[in-house]
């Protein structure tokens, strides 16, 4: 075997090193290329919005802050509420004054155009409470339903909402027709206390509806009252001149007798334990009594006068009583 020269070995070794180095360089270059290709392309920078600098700072702060849910918004103290619709689609509205925990409910106009002065009295009482908000103690909320029978009232007053005595223009026939709702039902015979399909008014037979609360107007008063549970209820009618307690077969509630006497003494009306002129079925305040809610009827002396001062005196006496 021939002896290889030292110079030849060195040459061959150099060539081998060169080839290995070239291979390694090429392989590393290819791997780097694959890594770059597999990486997602960087997002293009967003254009700056044309906003004032303080808004941008606020946005940055909000983005970095933890998300916290806003607390539920407290319910608003509404000035008025539509509690239902009449047979003919008119709104039955309850107006609210004060924000105390004890709610006193006033109801007028359940006999519509026949007792239009009770609705007018309610609107005048509302004017007084608006002008004298401090007359309502802080512990009391007053809710007034001035026209519980808006369809009947519309037969003698062609104005929706507050009206004046000069706006009333109707014959006696129209006023009598206005006592009833558009189904010709006497709403104060449609409540669930000794209800009868045929009720009595003076010496006449009147409809009490097809069932207790068959009429949307009486159902609206019921639903509002059951939802809000007033501390006391006063309803106005005409005409006899007096304050009458309510009851429904179990005698007069002690608190009902108390507020009957308080209202009568302050207003100057005589107080009566019961309405005895004729038998009444399905009466609204008697239904309140059945549900253990003190309620009284105030009958104005005539069909024309509102007797505002007398009734304001009675109302203020109730405010004083329920503020204690």
Summarize the structure in words.
The chain is α/β, with parallel strands linked by helices and 324 residues long. 37% of the residues lie in helices and 16% in strands. The chain has an eight-stranded mixed sheet, with helices on both faces. The chain has a two-stranded antiparallel ribbon with strand order 5-6. α7 (254-267) links the parallel β8 and β9 (271-272). α7 packs across α9. The protein is globular. It starts with 5 loop residues before the first helix and ends with a helix. The model is unreliable at 28-76 (pLDDT under 50).
Concise overview:
The protein has 324 residues and is α/β, with parallel strands linked by helices. It has nine helices and ten strands.
Order of helices and strands: HHEEEHEHHEEHEEHEHEH
Count the E strands: 10
Question: Helix count, per DSSP?
Answer: 9
Cα-to-Cα separation, first versus last residue: 131 Å
Number of domains: 1
Fraction of helical residues: 25-40%
CATH class: Alpha Beta
CATH topology: the name is Aminopeptidase
Which spans have pLDDT < 50 for at least 5 consecutive residues? 28-76
CATH level 4 superfamily: Zn peptidases
Average pLDDT number: 84
Strand order of the largest sheet: 1-2-4-3-7-10-8-9
Radius of gyration: 41 Å
Strand content: 15-25%
């Amino acid at each position: 075997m021939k002896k290889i020269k030292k110079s030849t070995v060195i040459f061959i070794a150099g060539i081998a090193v060169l080839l290995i180095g070239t291979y390694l360089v090429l392989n590393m270059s290819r791997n780097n290329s694959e890594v770059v290709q597999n990486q997602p392309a960087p997002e293009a920078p967003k254009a700056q919005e044309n906003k004032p600098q303080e808004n941008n700072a606020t946005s940055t702060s909000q983005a970095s802050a933890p998300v916290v849910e806003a607390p539920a918004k407290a319910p608003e103290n509404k000035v008025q509420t539509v509690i239902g619709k009449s047979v003919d689609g008119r709104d039955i509205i309850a107006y609210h004054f004060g924000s105390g925990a004890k709610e006193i409910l006033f109801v007028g106009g359940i006999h519509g155009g026949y007792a239009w002065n009770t609705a007018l009295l309610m609107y005048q009482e509302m004017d007084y409470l608006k002008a004298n908000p401090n007359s309502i103690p802080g512990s009391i909320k007053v809710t007034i339903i001035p026209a519980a029978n808006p369809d009947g009232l519309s037969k003698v007053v062609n104005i929706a909402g507050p009206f004046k005595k000069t706006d009333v223009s109707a014959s006696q026939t129209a006023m009598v027709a206005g006592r009833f709702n558009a189904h010709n039902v006497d709403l104060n015979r449609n409540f669930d206390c000794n209800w009868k399909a045929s009720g009595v008014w003076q010496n006449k037979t009147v409809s009490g509806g097809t069932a207790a609360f068959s009429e949307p107007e009486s159902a609206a008063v019921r639903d509002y009252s059951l939802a809000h549970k007033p501390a006391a209820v006063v309803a106005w009618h005409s005409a006899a001149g007096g304050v009458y307690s309510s009851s429904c077969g179990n005698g007069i509630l002690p608190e009902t007798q108390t507020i009957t006497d308080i209202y009568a003494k302050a207003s100057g009306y005589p107080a009566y334990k019961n309405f005895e002129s004729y038998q009444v079925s399905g009466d609204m305040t008697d239904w309140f009594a059945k549900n253990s809610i003190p309620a009284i009827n105030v009958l104005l002396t005539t069909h024309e006068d509102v007797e505002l001062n007398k009734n304001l005196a009675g109302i203020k006496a109730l405010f004083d009583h329920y503020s204690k």
